[in-house]
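Q: Got a minute? One more chain.
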Amino acid sequence: MSEKTINAAAAGTWKLGDLTINRLGFGAMRLTGSAAFDLGTPSDRERSIAVLRRAVDLGVNHIDTAAFYFSRLRSANELINRALAPYPDDLVIATKVGPGRDPSGEWLPFARPDRLRGQVEENLRQLGRDHLDLVYLRQPGLDSIAEHFGALAELREAGLIRHLGVSNVRPVHLAQAQAIAPVVSVQNLYGVGAVRSQELLRTCGEQGVAFVPFFAIAGEGRDQGASGTDREEVLAVARAHGATPAQVRLAWTLQQGPHVLAIPGTGNPDHLIENVAAAALRLTDEEMARLDALSDAG
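A: Always. Here it is, folded:
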């Protein structure tokens, strides 16, 4: 495929509330360094900025980030601001609150409901915006998220947030949130060989809620796909299409349903182009079944 024909729009579109996005988006976590929360190896600033700008050029209009995505000298939110502001009218930026890190990078206790406004305002400052398009409550294993989600619903009513989502949740949590305010998106671990959220994926489809897998390329062990090594079944499908294992994993993800989005992240310009090219990759029913079987086998 010629680079000129590569575009995130090839994956189709979905509506997050009133916001239309291409289903192939971009995750900002890896922009800040070689690992998700690596304080010792900051990324190259200009390269990260170039990756963000190139992503938008390739049709990406959904970027997933968080204030706690930072390494030494680098902040994902501030890189996004520097690269893309003034923001394109169709760009949707999603962020997450609940977890937090102090300036040294150490994780803080999960935020109390009354601390969520401060986290929202920190995202607003770093991104240079007066409202956030989509905010996820990323919960750590609570029995009930009602009090936390209620605090975010109040911020939505105040105009600081446009749409709400939930992350790392079970079906009961989605129901708790929906009883308080509309939920447009669920973000959970999901990928080839890691489908513990199958019930949620199905429920989201029935209710018109977006389902956004994280670690869709890396899988449950977080080391598959991205490095070019993978299970033989994935490699065989990749060879058949002249594709990479990461592209196959993304294509499998997108073919789980029209409401399923993908947010692969990278700080590498070449990997960015490969990821966006996966928007046009279509697997056969037989290939899908072979990859499905990897999850059935555990």
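A: The chain is about 35% helix and 15% strand.
Q: Perfect, thanks.
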